Amino acid sequence: MLEVNGLIKKYGKQNAVNDISFRLEGGEVVGLLGPNGAGKSTTMKCIVGLLRKTAGEILIGGHDHLSVAAKKLFSYIPETPNVYDLLTVKEHMQFIAQAYKVDNWKDKADQWMELYDLTDKKDKLGRDLSKGMRQKVSICCALLPDPQLLFFDEPMIGLDPKAIKNTKKIFKELKERGKTILVSTHLIDSVETIADRIMIMKDGNIIGNDTLSSLKSQFSATDDSSLEDLFLELTKDE
Ligand SMILES: Nc1ncnc2c1ncn2[C@@H]1O[C@H](COP(=O)(O)OP(=O)(O)OP(=O)(O)O)[C@@H](O)[C@H]1O
């Protein structure tokens, strides 16, 4: 579903992403972890075409990632939600529904807005929404087209506890429905139970990419050590 080969992204002379390669098979859920500045957001932004890559090849469903065919396959939830100042919550849904030709969009949009407590905010303008509400709108917009592949960059940031709980539940449901998910997060427990694989980045490199149990055995962690213990061990400065 996703193939990244030799991705390099430089900001000026600095390599933010340092020649990384990885794949996501259809139906896989992969947790992308790493300390601040590791290159997680840069990697995602290059994949979804928001940043121009310096080098490398990225294929989505076998199509170049910048092609329309690729864009039809995925949704992206950015680390900072961008909403349109002058569209209401409902108009955001309508805009996405029309762009992605979503059937029966009103019922689907109502369900997502209800789940994220946005029903009574549906006529509020984007510019009048709180940070958490913007994040909720961003998530609803990404879920509405029901894409095969979802990129979540720090989806829990700014969400209230109920929305965090719902989002974890949605991850589980999406996984059960065979969706492919790449989720970057610092809330390690939010991916520990659902991720088929964990990818750990540090200084622009992938320093671990395997199932949790394989990572534990590779790095001689004990069976009862958590993903958090493993993460801290792998990313500690020498
Ligand atoms: N627009 C930019 N211009 C210059 N350098 C940047 C820019 N954006 C990111 N960087 C640098 O690229 C590196 C990777 O940043 P990135 O935002 O991808 O990390 P991250 O893993 O997502 O971090 P965080 O967990 O803090 O969100 C960092 O060293 C950062 O300072």
TrEMBL record:
Pfam families tied to this protein: ABC_tran
Name of the protein this chain belongs to: ABC transporter, ATP-binding protein
Domain ABC transporter intervals: 2-228
Organism annotation: Indibacter alkaliphilus (strain CCUG 57479 / KCTC 22604 / LW1)
Keywords: ATP-binding, Nucleotide-binding, Transport
Keyword Transport: yes
Alphabetized InterPro entries for the sequence: AAA+_ATPase, ABC_transporter-like_ATP-bd, ABC_transporter-like_CS, ABC_Transporter_VariousFunc, P-loop_NTPase
Any one GO molecular-function label of the UniProt entry: ATP binding
SMART domains noted in UniProt: AAA
Superkingdom of this protein's organism: Bacteria
PROSITE patterns according to UniProt: ABC_TRANSPORTER_1, ABC_TRANSPORTER_2
CDD domains: ABC_DR_subfamily_A
